[in-house]
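Here comes just one.
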Amino acid sequence: MFFLQTNPDEISTSTVLFIGTIGMMVLTVGLVLFIIFHQRKVSRYQRTLQKMEEEQQKILLNASIKLQEEERQRLAADLHDDAGPLLATARLYLNENLVNQDKATQLQSIFQARQIIDDTIQLVRNISHSLMPPTLKNFGLESAVNDLFQKISGSGSMNASSRFHEYKERLKAEKELIVFRIVQELVNNILKHSNSSFIHLTQNVHGDKFYLRIHHDGRGLVQTDFDKLNKSTIGLGLKNISSRLRVVQGAIFFEKDISQTYYKVTIELPKDDPYQ
């Protein structure tokens, strides 16, 4: 009678190979499942990110449209309230009865009408300049801001100064206009409400960020004040600032200096890529 004899070493080797094969299969299946689930997770993340980017673009577009509409409404109001009455008055001086009047009266009426028309031309020119200041268009943000502050200082209302430290390359034209409008709005608020004796603006660049900082020694806001006003039904000017900042993906910070002697407003923008 014959018995099948098996070498214990062969059994051990076969067992190890079998277990190793099973382990490799399990690891392979696990790795495949991990890759599949990871790819699905990445795909979901990419879809979510794309959706967020699309929503952000919609927000920026709506903000831009809103700003344009507000500018149109302001322009229409300026023309209606200022230019309209001037032209209507000029028309009164140049009515059909003018030919029936004596020569001296005619000359006087023509002179008066001419003065009114000249005032209207100047008004329209001022409105045009407010839409795109020539200094900003021709020489850039630094020159436009310096010109604005020189006019404030020259008026005697307060001591105003500005200094740009790192502005070798201009921002894009549309961004320069938005930033200038923000500076105008902030300066107007300071002139109207702060009772300051001085206002000073500085510009610099740090890393990939562009900064403008306005300092003044009057009544001012801190960030919580700004946030509250921005959410309320008042403070239209501050809402315009927020809308404009969203268009250029910027931020604004209101604070009181650590010395408690003056307020500081910081405008932060992503620096333009010179290769775009």
Remarks:
- The beta strands are 159-164, 198-206, 209-216, 251-256, 263-270.
